[in-house]
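Following the same procedure, sequence and fold were stored together, as reproduced here.

>
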Amino acid sequence: MNTPDDIKYLATHQWGRLEGDGTVTMGITDYAQSQLGDVVFVDLPAVGSELVQASDAGVIESVKTASDLFAPVSGRVIKINPALEDTPEIVNDSPYDKGWLLRIQPDDVGAEWGQLLDAEGYSQAVQAEEDS
């Protein structure tokens, strides 16, 4: 399982990366994409939509199932990954790079960022999930 140290995680298998311009890029984890199988469709909120941390941020569908997506931070959606419309499977190939989902302009990243899991905490959450 690939869990980069430079990003933060939700226990629900989404990640957030704080960019140099203060925005947060969101995606699903390597673990999540491996559990989903081949991603065939991603339904994301429109640019301009307001998101609340750990609340609904869309749905990702695979050949196996559909899973809800949850926002790593509260804020306004400022960009959707345009490649997902024609090639949603890039989420499987590159969940942390080319397969990112959306970009958020956070309301107050400081307060919420500390609530997210680091790589070690996320790995422990996955292990606990697998053990239950």
